[in-house]
Write a structure and sequence with these properties.
The protein is 38% helix and 17% strand. By secondary structure, the protein is α/β, with parallel strands linked by helices. Helix 8 (253-266) links the parallel strand 8 and strand 9.
């Protein structure tokens, strides 16, 4: 089976990581031939083709995208990348197209119709954008159910200037109805929303959990890593990660500061905070009961797994999520997590199984539950064991790969 993956990036960002893992699983368990067309290539993989190779194309298309978004004609037309995508698709001649994150100004909505003439499309949704006007997350706004303009903040990425949500939804509905697409959501939460969307009327929708390599993300000894960071063996360590710490409005970097401020005031014991991600949260340096360790962005999955195993608890005060890679990685590594009950987080974090789920956005309770768990060695060990078992039962690479392969085969046979 020859598969063409289309995504914003090959290895950077949550959607890229999930798609890459899917490709690895399909190749490992089903011997598929995988190709990737992406806006931004960061690897050296010869089967990955960027849509913007020259500096001129990158700059020109970036600014074209900015101005078209301001006018409210988001992803209606782009001068370069869609042509490259269509050309590469015709060269590769895939049996199936695995479509992922279409945001970022490299993919036009109408391209779905053209691509579906070349091969069936299975579209994995990583957020809500496909069935809203322009919102990746609507924060409770349901205007999209009635095909109306968004009442949520249209200036949050992927932003538009003029609120043309109703027009964009009508366009999406027309294009989807004329295209051979099947929709997959990694979370039940997103599936339930997609089923309520008029734009997917008559379309096949499925839920398949994202999977990870459980031989990489597994409980490990963190002794050597603790030594290298000068963390005592008996010290409490909590961990937080986000690709861009202070620029992503969804991942809760600002809430983390408030939560840690509460913890700092309630404890006299030293707590070590390990942060993975790009950027700094300067306010953390003012908390006298915290020792902060920052690593920057870590791409090596084995190293991420090692950091997770070293931590006693993963704290993740996200404000919007689909099915968080970070939470899956944490529980697979045997590190329970505390997170808000938003999006698909409750499908990963189960109370007294893989951590603690907090009502949004109760910062006091988040801090209190974090302290409660940190105070009990016995509870942390119990949750560590249960977390790993839960990950093995739900988030294996093999299980995800088999589910997608069966779906791909079915779509190819129907072609």
């Amino acid at each position: 089976m020859k598969i063409l993956f289309i995504n914003i990036s090959d290895i950077v960002g949550g959607a890229a990581i999930a798609a890459r893992r899917l490709g690895m699983g399909l190749e490992k368990y089903h011997n598929t031939e995988n190709f990737f067309v992406v806006r931004s290539k960061a690897s050296t993989d010869k089967n990955v083709f960027p849509t913007r190779e020259s500096g001129f194309v990158q700059v020109a298309e970036k600014w074209f995208n900015i101005f078209s978004n301001l006018l409210g004609i988001q992803y209606q037309y782009l001068p370069f990348s869609p042509k490259v995508i269509l050309q590469k698709t015709r060269e590769i001649k895939p049996d199936i197209i695995s479509l992922h994150n279409t945001l970022g100004g490299y993919f036009t909505t109408s391209l779905i119709r053209e691509l579906s003439k070349e091969a069936p499309i299975v579209w994995t949704l990583h957020d809500m954008w496909a069935f809203t006007g322009n919102s990746a997350h609507t924060f409770g706004d349901v205007s999209w159910k009635e095909m109306k303009n968004s009442r949520s903040n249209t200036r949050i990425y992927p932003s538009i200037g003029i609120n043309t949500g109703s027009m964009l939804l009508r366009q999406k509905k027309k294009i989807y109805s004329e295209s051979d697409i099947t929709v997959v959501t990694p979370s039940d939460w997103l599936l339930s929303l997609a089923k309520e969307s008029p734009v997917f009327a008559g379309k096949e929708l499925h839920h398949i959990f994202n999977g990870i390599d459980l031989d990489i993300f597994k409980p490990r000894s963190g002794e050597e890593l603790r030594k290298s960071l000068n963390i005592p063996p008996d010290a409490r360590v909590i961990m937080f990660s986000a690709e861009k710490l202070n620029k992503n409005p969804y991942k809760g970097g600002r809430d983390l500061i408030e939560i840690l401020k509460i913890i700092n005031a309630r404890t006299e014991k030293k707590v070590h905070l390990l942060i993975l991600g790009i950027g700094r949260l300067e306010e953390l340096e003012l908390f006298n009961n915290f020792t902060v360790h920052t690593t920057g962005y870590v791409r090596d999955e084995a190293k991420v797994a090692e950091y997770l195993s070293m931590a006693d608890l993963f704290v993740y005060p996200t404000r919007a999520d689909n099915l968080s890679n970070a939470l899956i990685e944490s529980v697979a590594s045997g590190t329970p997590a505390v997170t808000f009950d938003v999006g698909g987080c409750k499908e990963i974090i189960k109370n007294d199984v893989s951590g603690c789920l907090i009502e949004p956005f109760n910062l006091e309770k988040f801090a209190g539950e974090t302290l409660r768990l940190l105070s009990s060695d016995e509870k942390l060990k119990e949750l560590s064991h249960k977390s790993r078992k839960f990950a093995e039962e739900n988030f294996s690479l093999k299980s995800m790969s088999e589910s997608y392969y069966e779906l791909f085969e079915k779509k190819i046979r129907r072609k």
